[in-house]
Design goal:
Helix content is 32%, strand content 31%. The chain has 289 residues and is α+β, with helices and mostly antiparallel strands. The chain has two domains: 2-163, Ribosomal Protein S5, domain 2; 169-288, GHMP kinase, C-terminal domain (Alpha-Beta Plaits), CATH 3.30.70.890. Helix 1 (70-82) packs parallel to helix 2 (104-119) and helix 6 (226-232) packs across helix 7. It is globular and about 55 Å long. The mean pLDDT is 93.
């Protein structure tokens, strides 16, 4: 039996522009995403030859352990493509909140593909893994990138303009509200009248340019979901305002919610604000990453 241990980082959206709903049911997106390596799930894979058997174990009861689990799906896609069989047990220690706009499940799935590829002595190139991963979840391909951030297009599977990032840090605040992505997209289509307008400014491109020039990239933080999600969950707007009030250079809700982050130029400042936020919201997840 082979044991492989791996970590799956969270990600945040610095921008999220929803451009239109496509005929296949997915939405055309434009967004800048960034890994948060200090907030991560821990996975352990135990793999051995045998008839295909997939066992998922997780310390979070919200996570399904059957074929609905995204790691379960990743295993099946990989083995079907390779035309091989194994027994595999996956233990997931969840640190990334569920339904939080942090893509924890997608990151776990990417790590699963990589673990299997390692076990079989890397039969697939990165481009092959990306193609397989896209059929499991549109956010998964980003996590194969060696860079920390990227401009992402399509439905989340087209990775453009990858970049490193080491300036400042982020204070992540999750109010432990599980928001359904499907529900969020459905509401968005009803509420955002300008969603399909071709004259929309390319905010994501502007943020990438600002990152390269070092010119206050945080002023381009943007998320189409904020308006609709904040209506239902006012605490999200409250957290964002609190972060700005305590000195964040910029603040935004990530993905379709419910996590909010603030950007700080120094770890020391972020840590001071973390203690303040944590004291006020004792049951929230509050971390500096």
């Amino acid at each position: 039996m082979t044991t492989i241990k791996a970590e799956a980082p969270a990600k945040i959206n610095l921008t999220l522009e929803v451009l239109r709903r496509m005929s296949n049911g997915f939405h055309k997106l434009r967004m800048v995403v960034l890994k948060i390596p200090d907030l991560k799930d821990e996975l352990e894979f135990q793999i051995q030859p045998g008839v295909r058997k997939i066992i998922i174990k997780c310390d979070n009861p919200e996570i399904p352990l059957d074929e609905r689990n995204i790691c379960h799906k990743a295993v099946n896609v990989f083995l079907d493509k390779l035309k091989k069989e194994v027994e595999i047990s996956i233990k997931i220690k969840k640190k990334i909140p569920v339904g939080a706009g942090l893509s924890g499940g997608s990151s776990d799935a990417a790590v699963t593909f990589l673990a299997l590829n390692k076990y079989f002595n890397k039969p697939f190139l990165r481009k092959d893994l990306i193609k397989m991963a896209s059929s499991v979840g549109k956010d998964v391909p980003f996590f194969f990138s060696s860079k920390r951030g990227a401009l992402v297009e399509g439905s989340g599977e087209k990775i453009r303009k990858k970049f490193d990032f080491s300036e400042g840090c982020f204070l992540i605040v999750n109010p432990r509200i599980n928001i359904s992505t499907k529900e969020a997209y459905g509401q968005l289509s009803k509420d955002i009248w300008f969603m399909k307008n071709k004259d929309r400014t390319n905010i994501s491109e502007n943020l990438i340019k600002a990152l390269k020039s070092g010119n206050n990239f945080e002023k381009y933080f943007y998320n189409d979901f904020e308006m609709t999600v904040e209506k239902k969950y006012p605490v999200i707007k409250e957290i964002k305002q609190a972060l700005l009030a305590f000195g964040a250079e910029g603040a935004l809700m990530s993905g379709s919610g419910s996590t909010v982050f603030g950007y700080f130029k120094s770890f020391e400042k972020a840590e001071i604000v973390r203690k303040i936020i944590q004291k006020h919201y004792g049951d929230f997840l509050v971390v500096v990453g």
